[in-house]
Amino acid sequence: MAKLGMFASLIALCAVFGIATTSSPAESADACVRKDFKTELVKNACAKGGQAEAKDQMKAFMKDKKIKSCNQCHSKLAPSYDLKPDGQKQYTDAGGK
Questions:
Q1: Cβ of 82: how many Cβ atoms within 10 Å?
Q2: Nearest-5° Cα angle at 84, 83 to 86
Q3: FRET partner for 92 with CA separation of 20 to 30 A, picked from 9, 16, 69, 79?
Q4: Cα 88 to Cα 46: distance, rounded to the nearest angstrom
Q5: pLDDT digits (tens, 9 = 90+) for 22-80
């Protein structure tokens, strides 16, 4: 009986380590849909914390630059955040890299 309990504990421990090592912070959060990044801010934010981090970083950028709405540059929001034809230019004109 003790061997069965020890075996069950070992299996549970392996499962915990397997789950903990297979996901990075960006994977455990909602990953960014976009994989081709044209801005350093979004690329770094997606790598750090997924879509939630990218959204937080862009909101901070907008607040700093006094941009009132995401829809100024984006034609569609979550999950793809498609840009308007001049969205990238608006971002760089505002000081984004």
A1: 11
A2: 110
A3: 79
A4: 17
A5: 444 444 458 999 888 999 999 999 999 999 999 999 999 999 999 999 999 999 998 88
What are the boundaries of each domain within the chain?
A: 23-93
Per the listing, tokens 């540059």 go with 73
Q: How far apart are CA 11 and CA 54, in angstroms?
A: 37
Q: To which residue do tokens 């790598």 refer?
A: 47
**Which token pair is 93?**
């004109």
β-partners of residue 74 are 83
The answer to whether 79 touches 54, Cβ cutoff 8 Å, is no
pTM of the model: 0.67
